[in-house]
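Two quick folds needed for the group meeting slides. Do the first one here.
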Amino acid sequence: MSELLKRLKGDKVIWIITLLMLAFSLVSVYSFVPILVKIEGGTPFKYLFKHFVYVLIGLGVMFWVHRRDPANFSKLAKFGFYLAVALLLFTFFFGVRVNDAGRWVRIPFVGLTFQSSDFAKLALIVYVSRLLVKRKEVMNDWKEGFLPLVTPIVVICALIVKDNFSTAAILFAICLTLMFIAKVPFLKVASLIGGGVALFLFIVLIQKAAPDLRILPRLETWENRFFNHANSDENIMENAQVQNAADGIYAGGIRWTGENKSFFGGQGIGDGVVKEYVPEAYADFYYASYVEELGPIAAGVLVMLYLILLYRIMRIGLSSKKMFESYVCIGIGILILSQAAVNMLVCTGMFPVTGQNMPLLAMGGSAMIMTCLALGMVQAIAYKQQKEAGEIEKPEEVTEEESQVFETE
C-alpha cells in the first residue's frame, strides 16, 4: 500500500478512502444484485464484471486527471457546459427510457449506458465556479454579472428536472451555496430562488392543465412519493419500497446470538433478504442492503468515511490560493455528501423515495466514473498545493511536458 501511495499524488486520505470504497463496492454489488438477476437475467458474476470494468475506468480517469494542471479545468469549463447541454438535449429526444424517465444514453457497439446528468452536474459546478471568479467585479450588474451566471444554472437544471427532480434540486442548491459563499448580493440570490420556484410552479400548472403535453411526465410519480411518504400508515402498499428498506435496516440491528452470546450486527455478507425483492437494492436502496448485511456499526463507519472525505475535500479547497479551486472543491464535496445523505435518508424513511445512489459504492457506471473524475480534480488541486509548498521536489529528469507543468504552477 505504501508503494502504491507514493505513486499517487495529492491527499493520501482521500486516496485511501476512495480505494477502500471502490474495493468494497465489488463485494457489495456482487451481493446486492439478485433482484436485477431476476428482472433482467444473467448471473451475479455478469454484473460484477461490468461493475469491475467501470471501477477500472474510474480509477484510470482519476489517476490521469489528478496529474493535470487545475488551470485547465477553468479553461475547459465553458466547453464542458456546452457539451453537457448537448448531451442533455440528446437524452431528451433520443435517451433510453426506464420507468417513464429518459435519463440514459446508450453507447454504440459496447451496449453500455451513460447518464448525461452525471456529467452535467460536475460541468455546471465547474462552470459556475469559473463565472463566480470571472464576473466577481460586475456581479452587482444584472446584465454583465448576474444574468450570465444564472443562465447556465437555469438551463442545466431545467433540462434535468423533467426526468430527475431530486438531482436538479440538489444541483440548484449547490449553486446557491456557491453564490452565497462568493458573496453574490442577497437580493439577487433571493430573486433567483423566487424566480425558480415560480417557474417550476408555472410548469406544474401547465402539466396539470394539459397532461397530454407531457412537460413533466413524472409529476404524478413525484406527488405519489411525497404524499405516500407523508401518510405512510395509510399507504403501506404504495409505499412498500420504503417499508421493505426499513425492515431490512431493522433486521441488521445489533443483537445477542449463538452459544457464546457473541455481540454483532447484521445478517452477514450475502445473507440479506432485502436485495431479493427491493428494486434498486444495489443503487437507490443501497444503504438498506448495506445495513442489513453489515449492521449498524458498519453503517456508522460508512457515515464517518463520507464525513472525513468531505472534511479533506473542504480542507483542500479552503487552503487554495485561487477562489476558482476553492469553489470547485466545495461544490464537489457538497455534491458527494448530499447524494450519500439522500440515499441514507430515503432508506431510513426520513425522505421521499428518489433516485440518488451511494457515491463510490453503488452500481452505476456513469455515476462511478464522474465521481472519480470529480475526486481527480480535487486531487489535482491538492497536488498543486503540495508542489507550491515544496512538499514534492521537481525530479532531476522530466519530460518537456512535465517541465512546463512545473513552470506554470
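Then this one, please, same format:
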Amino acid sequence: MRTRAIQITAFGGPEVLQACDIELGEPAPGEVRVRQSCVAINFVDVYHRIGQLHGDGPKPAFIPGVQANGVIEVLGEGLESSGLSVGDRVTYANIGIGSYVGHRNLPADRLVKIPEALSDEIVAASYLRGLTAHYLLKRLYKVQPGDKVLIHAAAGGVGQLMVQWAKALGAIVIGTVSNEDKAALVQRLGCDYPIVYTQENFADRVLQLTDGEGVPVVYDSVGRDTFKDSLRCTRAMGIAINYGTASGQVEPFPLQDLHSKSLSVCRPTLRTWIAKQSDLHWASNELFELLSTGRLRIDVAAQLKLEEAAQGHRLIEDRNTAGAIILKP
C-alpha cells in the first residue's frame, strides 16, 4: 500500500522536511500495521534533522520521528496470544526513527495499549517525555521527599512533566526559564523557585537558595550553555545529568573538575532504560496512572497536518511554545 510520509534528504533547517508517498509492505511475523492518528514532534527530531548526532544518528535520506500512536489495522503472523487485536489503540517510542508517516509496520512487543481514559492527543504529547521523566526522577536519581532539585528548561515539554512529577514525589523544585511568563507557568505547575536565567545567574541563585550547599541533582537538557554552571551548583557527591543538548553539545572539560566535590556526571538516553519490555510497561503504567488521575497535565500547543512538519519544527525550535506540538496524518 501507499502511505504519506515526511522525508529528509539532506541535513538543514525545517525546509528539508519534505512530504512524499512511500510504499509499505505487509507486516512481517511479529509485527502489526498501525494507522497513525497522532505523531509527536520531540526535540530529538531536530537533532536528527540538523545532523547533531549521538554516535548512531541517521544519515539522509531518512524519515524522522521517534514517537506516535494510532490504531492497529493488521496483525502479522504469530501474534495470536500477544494480547493485541485489530482496533486496539496503541502507542510507542524509541523503536527507531520513522514515525512521520500515515501508516507503519511495528514490532508488536514494543507497543503499549492506550487506556480508554486518555485521548490520542494527550498520549502523543506526553508519552516519550513522560517515559524520560520516569527514569530521570525514579531510577537514575531516585528523588526523595525534601530533595531540592534543579530542572532546566522547566517550561519545556519534558520540563513541565518533570516539575509536576518531582513535586508529586515531595521534592522542592527549582526551575530555570527564559522569561516571566514561563516563570508564572511553571509556578502554577508546582515549581517552588522559578529562575529567569536571562535576568540572573542561575547557579548563584541556586547556591543562595541552598545556603551555599547546592542541589543533589541537576537535570540539564540545555547542554553547552548551562552545563558548566550546572556543575557549580551541584552539591558534594551529587550528580549532574545532561539528557539534552538544546543549545549544543557539552564541550569537553577536564575530569579533574569533578574531583573537589566528588561529583558524578551522566549522559543517559531513554532507549537503554526501556530496552526491557518489563521496564517499558512499568514506566508506561505509572505515567498513564498519573495522567488519568490528573496529577500530571500537559498542554497541546498546536495540532498540525503531517505535511506541516516544517512549521512544527519551527515552533519547537523558537522555544516560545510552552505546550506540545503534534502532527495529524
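Slide caption for protein two: The chain has two domains: 2-126+274-328, 145-267.
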